[in-house]
Design goal:
Structural class: alpha+beta
Number of helices: 6
CATH superfamily: Penicillin V Acylase, Chain A
Distance between the termini: 35 Å
Shape: globular
Number of domains: 1
Radius of gyration: 17 Å
Low-confidence stretches: none
Mean pLDDT: 94
Length: 277
Amino acid sequence: MCLIVFDWRPAATGGPLFTLTANRDEFLRRPAEPMHWWQDAPALLAGRDLTGGGTWLGMTRDGRFAALTNYRSPHTTRPDAPTRGTLVSHWLMREPGATPLAYLHEVAQNGDLYNGFNLLVGDWTRRELAWYCNRSPQAPALLAEGTHGISNAVLDTPWPKLVNQRAALADTLAADPVAPLDRLIDLMRDTRIARDDELPATGISLELERAWSAPFIESPDYGTRGTTALRVLAQDGRLRVQTVERSDDNGSHRIKRPGDYERSFTFDIEGARRAAA
């Protein structure tokens, strides 16, 4: 997952608590399963990386959530580092009890073992959302309400695609707080590249900086493999999750570019009515 923009309203008593739209960028040869309820963890809804076994974004029936982006630092990348996707699945599969911030402090104890990452961890019933980057001097922290973005640098780093898509999400929600999820998907299918004078310098070639500056990346071997839109609605004392994924894989690992295979899921968070009472 390489571009996430989201709106967080933890005090919401009606309407959206959390709204997200995100692109997953990956090598096209890396096999993955699209979003589904996992057979070995039936309460977990996520795609699955079939190389490392983890995931890039997922949620659970009891209201936990996590998403990951890689931190771009090619000169410090180690091929023997543990897979980062399990940092998402470990949160989603663990026994209830830990808070998002406590989990991120636990991750931070061994954060230097991994290649660079941003990890967003939430618990919608607790109304807590926290962030940690193992390449930032900042300790894990709870996020204040507002509209944020993460790409392949620390939270809210002003890369053009992050600034533009974050603003587009804010404008969309200002016009319609419950905008159709398809509209949030379309917001991220933007293939425009940034001007050279706007590009970050992350240690890759100028050609790649240009290609990867687009919100939706199209290149021969690497690109945006899927887009996820997600909303959590506070409604009548309950929390309802609505999510749509549009990806390049129909479940048979036959890649179609650009992807248009779509899945949607809606469910009420277990225990949310009790927690809100």
